[in-house]
Amino acid sequence: MKTSKIFAAALVFSAISSLAFAQTADEVIDRMVGLDIPLYSYADMQIQVYEGNKLTDEMNLQEFGMKKQEMKNAVFNIIKSNGYKGTRILQSEKTGVAASRWIYMPELRTTRRVAVSEGKKGWLGTDFTYDDMGIRATNEDNHEMLESNIVETVGGTNYSCYKIKSVPKKKTVEYSARIQYIDKGTYLPVKIEYLDKTGKLFKIYTIEKIANVKGATGKDYVLRQVNRIENINTKHTTICSVKKVVFDEKIKESYFTQNWLNTGKN
Asked: Could you tell me if 58 and 237 are in contact, meaning their C-beta atoms sit under 8 angstroms apart?
């Protein structure tokens, strides 16, 4: 009898412990959104755009990043592309606030602001939209935990994930919902399924390769090294690869100005 009581007590304690460590969907999304980023970053990147199996553009670009207080700034400089060479984009955003974006178009020799209403448009002919390039705050969506422990295979790697359905509160984006598979080890969304306005799957994003990178100050960061996004309806695919990256080495703030967009010079 005494052994049975001890066993029963152990089961109760185990259940309580499991509940104590269980995370809600909102808590998981908070962890994902709040992942630490370096104060400064520099990356050489390559973006490949496919129509079916045909490569239609291979874009080489530089990305400069700077975190200043709560503002995250990024500049993209297109060095090689079939149609976008010389284009430069500046993005400044704060979590939960619509991003401010400017684009310099060499054929017009001018910089213009990208309207918030253009968020659904493709980013330089890719399958990423301007909205995909930004950060969504936890409270912009309603989140539902579909599975608290599911194994998802991405890029040949098995990940133990939370499976969460996120439905936007405002219908200003191109999708009606996202199904996010968030890796428990890194809190990166290793896979995202996008549902259209009818609830049908139309786009899939995956992180094909994750890398651990040590910054100049010795701090460790998790990098989405290879990203893939596929539009099922158009049969277009975009693969974004980081070829070189440096974290926490100071970058001139003049990069993050419209003057640099116009001139490409510091």
From this structure: no
Q: CA nearest 30: which of 93, 95, 94, 119?
A: 95
CA-CA-CA-CA torsion for 211, 215, 221, 223, nearest 10 degrees? Answer: -40
Beta-carbon contacts of residue 48 (< 8 Å; ≥ 6 apart)? 55, 57, 58, 59, 238, 239, 241
CA–CA separation, 78 and 58 (whole Å):
11
Ranges of H-type helices in the chain: 2-21, 25-33, 258-263
Question: In degrees rounded to 5, what are phi and psi of residue 171?
Answer: -85, 55
Distance CA 258, CA 62 (A): 17
224 HSE (CA, 13 A, CB side): 16
Whose structure tokens read 């060499």?
106
Structure-block tokens of residue 61: 């670009």
Q: What is the dihedral of CA 172, 174, 177, 180, to 10 degrees?
A: -120
Beta bridge partners of 178: 166, 194
One-letter amino acid at 36 equals D
Distance between CA 60 and CA 70 in Å, rounded? 29
- How far apart CA 31 and CA 28 sit, in angstroms, is 5
How does pLDDT run along the chain (266 residues), one tens digit per residue?
Answer: 444 544 444 444 444 443 445 689 999 999 999 999 999 999 999 999 999 999 999 999 999 999 988 789 999 999 999 999 999 999 998 766 778 999 999 998 899 999 888 888 889 999 999 888 888 889 999 999 999 999 999 999 999 999 999 999 988 899 999 999 999 999 999 999 999 999 999 999 999 999 999 999 999 999 999 999 999 999 999 999 999 999 999 999 999 998 999 998 87
pTM over 0.85: yes
